[in-house]
Design a protein that fits this description.
Length: about 425
């Protein structure tokens, strides 16, 4: 297995060396001019250059260096990667480069970038954990009142804007701008909150341009026994796996999850939600970069000794395969099973679509894995069975919110907003 991994990474690197020799000569003078250019290239200029140079090499790193030498300057930086289909665990992770991540994307291999978070879960592994007890469903009237406030129109408007960013690639200015826009939307919701609602917002900065965004309902009456956070998350970045400077609207992956939890957050704020436990909404940067954003946050919580009562993340909530019944699906691998069963009971109580348990296809995953690895209870809700109902448009220019035949459904996504509201209230309490 290990050999295979080296072979994969090496093979691409070798193919690449030949392409480099070819390409760099042909465009030497232009690259040189560019490196000294003052203004960064516009997306349109980058597209022109991609077209111009893509005949010279099929390697994404070489192409990047030709198209945008300044932007490609850190692609040779060493990164420690755990490639899910090649390594049995993080202990087998191997050194590669930032650029190798682009090659893995092209090969359809998913990975975790553990460079800065190698010790995730080690401190929590020795802590004494009490068996989690999930409370009986008991806030029906409050949950239903908040749910009645959810609208698909808000989700539509937010997603229209969010997908209008050329892409939301975590290493780019586009990814920083889309993150800042999201931050301002959350801030705007908080600014309109009833004066008595204790809320905070945080821009969680990273060693790359895109920040994660964290909003938090503080407990109304803080108690030393109720400090564990209830966390609801989604990832805000998008990526075009063919080449990262191409368009990536990321409407389903994971613009849908982003606006799903944003709408749940808005309705909770408008209804004056005041929990017993802290309740947090997380929008993660750089899921596509190897779960970078969520691992940074989980690692900080572990380092600071913060407890987490339960975490759920929503990755892809709108795609509805033709001639399939739309469902709320709960993933059963790399999750906390008792929490997942509890979420199923919440979905059965509050969502109007059927609920199903589903397994991930091998080599797939998302941000709940960061919390699971850190030793916290995590769950994962998504739009369907990944084996039979998977969205074929993700990671490309065609992942838009305007799909034919009703395949992109805001009604479907709204069912997940209901689950997010129920998770916040039933686990966070309401005083
Ligand atoms: C949501 O709740 C707020 C505050 O109660 C109210 O002003 C608004 O009209 C509600 N919106 C919907 C769609 O129910
Ligand atoms: C916290 O829990 C302990 C042990 O169950 C209990 O004795 C104490 O009264 C609780 N404190 C508060 C403030 O509820
Ligand atoms: C869905 O079902 C309809 C009616 O049976 C059929 O005409 C159509 O071809 C089906 N679509 C797909 C994608 O299977
Ligand atoms: C996007 O869809 C168009 C129209 O169906 C198709 O021609 C094109 O190949 C698709 N592009 C990608 C990247 O899948």
């Amino acid at each position: 297995m290990k050999l295979t991994a080296s072979f994969v990474l090496l093979a691409v690197s070798t193919g690449l060396a030949a392409a480099t020799a070819l390409g760099s000569q042909a465009v030497l003078s232009q690259s040189d001019d560019l490196a000294h250019a003052e203004a960064p290239l516009s997306d349109g200029q980058l597209l022109e250059r991609i077209e111009q140079f893509s005949g010279l090499t099929s390697d994404p790193v070489e192409l990047y260096k030709l198209v945008d030498p300044a932007g490609a300057s850190d692609l040779d930086e060493p990164r420690l990667l755990y490639v899910w289909e090649l390594h049995k665990s993080e202990d087998e992770a191997e050194w590669a480069t930032e650029g190798d991540k682009l090659r893995l994307h092209q090969q359809g291999l998913k990975f975790t970038d553990i460079t800065e978070t190698r010790d995730l879960g080690k401190k929590n592994a020795v802590r004494v954990k009490e068996a989690a007890e999930y409370p009986p469903i008991s806030y029906q009237s409050q949950v239903r009142d908040v749910i009645s406030n959810l609208t698909t129109q808000n989700m539509y408007d937010n997603l229209e804007k969010f997908t209008s960013f050329f892409n939301r690639f975590y290493r780019s200015e586009n990814g920083a701008a889309s993150s800042h826009w999201l931050y301002l939307q959350v801030l705007d919701i908080i600014a309109k909150a009833p004066a008595s609602t204790p809320l905070s917002i945080r821009k969680f900065t990273n060693p790359f341009p895109q920040s994660s965004v964290i909003a938090r309902f503080e407990p109304k009456y803080p108690s030393p026994n109720k400090t564990a956070a209830v966390i609801i998350g989604a990832h805000q970045d998008s990526a075009n796996y063919r080449f990262p400077l191409l368009p990536a609207p990321g409407a389903d992956d994971d613009g849908s999850g982003t606006v799903t939890i944003l709408e749940a957050f808005r309705a909770l704020v408008e209804k004056g939600f005041t929990p017993e436990y802290p309740v947090e909404f997380h929008w993660y940067a750089a899921e596509e970069g190897g779960l970078l954003g969520s691992r940074q946050v989980a690692a900080e919580y572990e380092r600071l000794g913060r407890d987490v009562r339960a975490m759920i993340q929503f990755d892809m909530t709108a795609y509805t395969k033709q001639n399939h019944t739309a469902t709320v699906a709960l993933i059963t691998n790399d999750v906390d099973i008792p929490l997942t069963e509890y979420v199923i009971s919440l979905a059965e109580e509050y969502a109007d679509y059927p609920v199903q348990r589903a397994k991930l296809v091998p080599g797939a995953g998302s941000d709940h894995m960061s919390w699971h690895k850190a030793g916290y209870a995590g769950a994962f809700a998504t739009e369907g069975d990944p084996f039979t109902e998977f969205d074929p448009y993700i990671h490309g220019a065609n992942d838009t919110m305007h799909l034919p035949n009703g395949e992109f459904s805001f009604e479907h996504a709204l069912e997940f907003s209901k689950v997010a509201v129920a998770f916040a209230v039933e686990l966070g309490g309401w005083v």
